[in-house]
Amino acid sequence: MKTLLKALGLIGLIFATPAFADGDTLYADMGGKAGIDKLVDVSADNYLSDVRIKAIFDESDTDLLRAEFKDQFCQISGGPCIYKGQNMTAAHKGLHLTNADFNTVVEDLQAAMDTCNIAFSVQNCFLARVAPMQHQVVTK
Amino acid sequence: MFPRSLGLSLLTVLFLVEGSQAFADDALPGLEGQSAALFDEGKLLATGGVSQVEGAGGGGLTPWALITGYGTRDGIGFNAHFTYIDLTDYQLVSPGISVGLFDRLELSYAWQAFDTESTGAALGLGQGFTFHQNIYGAKLRLIGDAVYDQDTWLPQIAVGLQHKENDQAAIIAAVGGRNSVGTDFYIAATKLFLAESLLTDVTLRETKANQFGILGFGGDKHDNYSAQVEASAAYLISRKFALGAEVRTKPSNLSVAHEGTAFDIFASYFLDKNLSGTLAYTDLGNIVIHNHQDGVYLSLQAGL
After folding, report:
1. Is A60 near chain B, with CB under 8 Å?
2. Is the Cβ pair A120, B151 closer than 8 Å?
3. CB-based contacts of B45: which residues, under 8 Å, 6+ apart?
4. Nearest CB to B194: which of A10, A55, A124?
5. Average pLDDT, chain A
6. The predicted structure's pLDDT at residue B257
C-alpha cells in the first residue's frame, strides 16, 4: 500500500508539472505575426522539398497557399487574423490523403518549428490545435 | 548470470531489422508518396509506445491502448525487443516480438526466464533455478485515437489478452499455485494530452497470475479472477525523450507470501522509428522469501 501511494504521488506530481500555455499566449509564444510568417515559409519549403509528399502540391498555387497558411496559423494560435480560404474538408477533397501523408506534414512542420526555435512545449500547444484536422484532411 | 548468447542474438536481430530497412529504402526509389509501402512507418515518433514486460505495446509494466510499431491504418509495424530486469535477489530476461496490423490489431510473443539465483538454493530448488514463461498476446483497438483526438476527452480504447504458459508446474503446485497456465484479460485507455506534452494510460486487468505468472495462476488463498489497476503517465521532454512513472496492482493468491504492488519510474529514448531504449528503476515489492525487490529495468526495442 505504501508503494502504491508513493507511485500515485509520483504520477500526481508528473500531472502537476506541465506549464499550461493558454490561448492568449500561444500567438506571442510563436513569435507573433513575424514568427508565424517565417514558420509558414520554412514549413512550406519543407513540404515542397519532401519526396514523400511534394506531389500533393503539384496542382497548387503555392504562393496563395503560403498566404492562406499564414492567416490560418495566425488565427489558430489566437492571433488577430481571419483565415478566408476553403474549409479543411473542401480544401482536401479528392486528394485521397492518408494518415502517413498527414503525419509527414506534421513532421515537416515540427522540423520547421525547430528551425524557428519554437520551444517544444509551445510546438505541442500548436499541434494540439492542428491534430483534430486529421478528421477532415485524411480521406483515404 | 547474463545469457550472453541471447543478447548477441538480439543484437543480430537489431542489425537485420536496420539492414532490411536500409535495403527497402534503396530498393524502392520510385515508390515514395502516395503509393505507400506495407511497412509505411507513417506514425509519429514514439506514438507506438515501447514493449512492456509481457511483450505488448505499452510502457514498462503496463499495456497501452496504442498498437505497437509505426504502421498506420494502411500499414504494418513490427518490433523485436529485449528486456532485462536485475532485482536484489532475482533476475528476469525476456526477448520478444510483436506486430501491429493496420493500427487495429496487435499480436505479440514474449519469452521470460526468471532466475531465482541464490534464492533457489535457499528454497531447496538449486542455485539459479529458473522459471520460464511463454506469453502470447493479442490486442484490438476499439475506438478513439490518442494522437488526433485532441478536441475531445475520449481516449483511445483497446481490449487485449495475454495467455501465459509456465514450465514449472510441479514447483507452482508445491507453493500453492493452482495452475501453470493462465490468461489475463485487459481493457486499456490511453490519452495524449498534447498541449501539456503528457501521455496517460489506465488499464484494468482481470487476472489470476501470481507474480505476473512466474509463480503460476490462482492459489490456495484465492483462486478466482480479480480486477487489478495499472496506470502510466509519461511527460514528453522532447520528441525523442520521455520520462514517466507506472503503477500496477497484483492479486495476492498464495498463502506462502504476500504479493504487493509494482511500480517504476522510467526514461525512454527514441533514437528514431527503428531503435528505442528504456531505462527504469522498478520496485516489484515482496517476491516469495524476499521483501522489497527493486532494481534496474533495461529494455531495447528495434522495429519499424
Report:
1. no
2. no
3. B239, B240, B270, B272, B273
4. A124
5. 88
6. 86
Q: CATH number for the domain including A91? A: 1.10.490.10
A3 band by pLDDT with thresholds 50, 70 and 90: low
Query: What's B84's domain CATH number?
Result: 2.40.160.40
Q: Which domain holds residue A91?
A: 31-137
Cell matching residue B259: 504479493
Q: Is residue A7 part of a domain?
A: no
- Minimal CA separation from A49 to chain B, in Å: 12
Instruction: Judge: B231–A121 Cβ closer than 8 Å, yes or no.
Output: no
Helix (H, G, I), strand (E, B) or coil at B26: helix
Q: In terms of Cα–Cα distance, which of B258, B255, B260, B286 is closest to B176?
A: B255
Are A131 and B197 inside 8 Å of each other by CB?
Answer: no
Q: Is A48 on the interface with B (CB under 8 A)?
A: no
The mean pLDDT value for A96-109 works out to 97
Assigned domain for A18 exists: no
Q: Domain total for chain A?
A: 1
Q: Is a pLDDT exceeding 80 seen at residue A52?
A: yes
A53 close contact with B: CB closer than 8 A: yes
Q: What is the mean pLDDT of each run of 10 residues along chain B (304 residues)?
A: 45 43 41 63 95 97 98 97 96 98 98 95 92 98 97 97 98 96 98 97 98 97 97 98 98 93 97 97 89 94 96
CA B205 to chain centroid? 14
Backbone dihedral angles phi then psi of residue B37, each to the nearest 5 degrees: -75, 160
**What is the C-alpha end-to-end distance of chain B, expressed in Å?**
31
Residues of B in contact with A4 (CB under 8 A): 247, 249, 260-261, 263
Q: How many domains does chain B have?
A: 1
Sorted by sequence, the CB contacts under 8 Å of residue B180 that are 6+ apart come out as B165, B166, B167, B168, B169, B172, B216, B217
For residue B40, the enclosing domain spans 4-303
A98 touches chain B (CB under 8 A): yes
Chain A residue with Cα closest to B73: A99
Q: The pTM is what?
A: 0.87
Q: Is A10 touching B (CB cutoff 8 A)?
A: yes
Alpha carbon distance B200, B189 (integer Å): 8
In a domain, A67, yes or no: yes
List B residues 57-116 in contact with A (Cβ-Cβ < 8 A): 72-75, 103
Chain B interface mutation, best of A14, A77, A139, highest count of B Cβ atoms under 10 Å: A14
Answer yes or no: is A104 within a domain: yes
